[in-house]
Design goal:
Jelly Rolls, isomerase, 133 residues, mainly beta, RmlC-like_jellyroll
């Protein structure tokens, strides 16, 4: 029987200032925390076969989903269905901290990317591929 995997997510998310940190990867889902610096963004993207649920821990930002815009802040949750163009932009003076669940996993198990540039380079080089099987 598997042991309980437990996070106090706000504490966990505030513990790191990495752009992206994979906390846990399962067969069907993945838990990732992100910190977007003031003026920064995730970057417009589409996950063709992956659903994504983002929950905001602190900071303020703007969700841009299929051409629509919505302000987001602590306690907000945004669902991005597979195949949907999206971006999240930090519009406030403080880091925008969030956690996201991908289903199925999107990133390499245990991946840590300090900056967006590092994350983009890992994706382009093929180093940030999710586990298979």
């Amino acid at each position: 029987m598997a042991s309980v995997i437990h996070y106090t997510i706000a504490t966990e998310a505030e513990k790191y200032d990495d752009f992206r940190r994979v906390l846990w990867t399962g067969k069907n889902t993945q838990l990732v925390i992100m910190t977007i610096p003031p003026g920064g963004e995730i970057g417009e993207e589409v996950h063709e076969d992956i659903d994504q649920i983002l929950t905001f821990v602190s900071g303020t930002g703007e969700a841009r989903i299929s051409g629509s815009k919505k302000q987001v802040a602590q306690g907000d949750l945004v669902v991005v269905p597979a195949g949907t163009k999206h971006n999240f932009v930090n519009t406030g003076p403080n880091p925008l901290v969030l956690y996201t669940v991908y289903g199925p996993p999107e990133h390499a198990d245990g991946a840590v990317h300090r900056t967006k540039e590092e994350a983009d380079a890992a994706e382009e080089s093929g180093e940030d591929e999710p586990p298979t099987g």
